[in-house]
Design brief:
322 residues, alpha/beta, Rossmann fold, 2 domains, 6-stranded parallel sheet, 13 helices, 12 strands
Amino acid sequence: MRILVVRTDKLGDFITALPALYVLKQHNPENKIIVLVSPLNKTLALTCNFIDEVIVDDGQSSVYELSRKLKNANIDASLTLFSNTRVALAQFLAGIKTRIAPATKIAQIFYNKRVKQRRSEVKMTEFEYNLALTKALFPDINLEYTKPLLQFDDAKEKYQEFCKNNNITKDVIAFHVGFGGSSDDNWNLDEYEILIREALYVNKYNVVLTFGPDEKSLKEEMQERLKNTDIVFYLSTDGIVNFAKLISNFKLFVSTSTGTYHLASLVGTPTMTFFGDSKFASAARWKSVGDEKLQTHYMLPLDQTKRKEIFEIVKKDLLGQG
């Protein structure tokens, strides 16, 4: 069976789809697993050995162009993990016989198998809702998946080269200070600076600050704040897969709940992650796909007194790593 799985949004959202893709392939290795993804996630999708084909949707082409692309892929069934009217209509026009999606939004009218999930109630995490949707296609499917879900044969080699080039001799704690959304679910840069200096003070780790390719100005600001230190400031410009290889060797990855957190968890790196203190933004919904024992979550309240209390806990826990 040729199965299309649709998840055309951001990096973290796509990573929450990977367990579903894995179990579909494991259910029957003869299944051809095809994904429809945004350009950002193409290289990551191509790296996964449980994905057979990748179709890229830039979101700009017409619904008719997208439908032709899907029709040419000869798809037997589709699972749309997060829908919009455009991708729903394109599947309908492509003549995909079985079209499965959550029963939400007006787009559901273009699917012929709709599953009530009510994700807004947050009874499961996002990746668990995605896994559950596979049962609409195969009721007897095993939802267990391997962790870490993504590993690389050359990751150690890349890390050793990175260490040599940056004079790294100890385990690495990485901080990704970019906000990736509302500032309510992250520390401000002053608070991050305190945490980073605490990590430096114990003299047990090398500290690396990572930045996305569009965060050059943020990198420069942090370099100014933390000048005269031996911190490594790393701007990721060689793609998601190479970044994943690098961070898979880190001792700890500290960040807000953003795509880089999901990437770190995907490759088995321990994470310390900050979430908004609401049902929609919480770890209850956005916990990542990696081993739960390697994930440490903090809900950051709006109340400043409670926020300061959480900050002190984070400092203590950070220094207790390892």
